[in-house]
Amino acid sequence: MNPPQTAKSLIPSYQDPWCWKCREHTDFSKKTEVVQHVANSNHGTPTLYTTTTFTCKICKKKMHAPQVFDPVTLRRSAERGCLLIYWILVVIGLAVFCLLEAPWNWNLGLLLAVFAPTITIFVLGPILVLRLSARKYAVWKHWAMQRGWQEPSLEKRAKMEMKHGQNRPYQGDHTMADTDSDSVLDDQKH
User: Fold this and answer.
1) Which of 6, 63, 89, 93 has its CA 20 to 30 A from that of 122?
2) For residue 56, what are the CA distances in angstroms to 20, 25, 28, 29?
3) Do residues 100 and 94 lie in contact, with contact meaning Cβ atoms separated by under 8 Å?
């Protein structure tokens, strides 16, 4: 049985963790870990990042701020740049493949066997992720508007700093020797 909702949990907050199962801003546990990322496995220098996860105290599911799922994040220059580079690489890759392999000489079965998985993975996959993200945001937006929340303008939301749900470079004075890649920095309750 769920504990009773509090007045605070029913106040919409665009930047605070929201439980998608309980459908409210519930109390949560916060766990921050130091994670090692190596860009190039052979010669790359390890980079340490902190990653923070929020867990609902009621249902024990992961929580995310609605801001993370807002499609307006694609209007930020960094995200737009990544998407642009991704799509350029996909189009160039398919064009080079077509020129090198001359698919017009292939039979239809072989052509479908090559292009169907490629298009599914590299084109439909990202579109599906964007749709699911937009749907999640729409669920929260509907909930928030029922409680009197008014959505800020597109420009204002695009300029908002991420408060929760963003990995950040590790700022500690530890070296890799005295940190474990999965070490926990803190485990706070809210």
Assistant:
1) 63
2) 9, 9, 5, 7
3) no
Phi–psi pair at 41, nearest 5 degrees: -60, -25
Cα 49 to chain centroid, rounded: 16
Q: What residues contact residue 41 under an 8 Å CB cut-off, 6+ apart?
A: none
Q: Where are the domains of the chain?
A: 7-65+163-190, 67-161
Instruction: Count Cβ atoms below 10 Å from residue 72 Cβ, excluding itself.
Output: 19
Query: Where do runs of H (alpha helix) occur along 47-107?
Result: 66-69, 77-101
Q: Sort 95 into a burial class: Cβ within 10 Å, 0-12 / 13-18 / 19+.
A: exposed
The residues near 45 (Cβ < 8 Å, ≥ 6 apart) are: 38
For 141-176, what is each residue's pLDDT tens digit?
Answer: 999 999 999 988 888 887 777 766 555 555 554 433
Q: Residue 7: helix, strand or coil by DSSP?
A: coil
On whether the pTM is more than 0.85, the answer is no
- Name the token pair of 96: 């080079």
Residue 125: closest CA among 117, 134, 137: 117
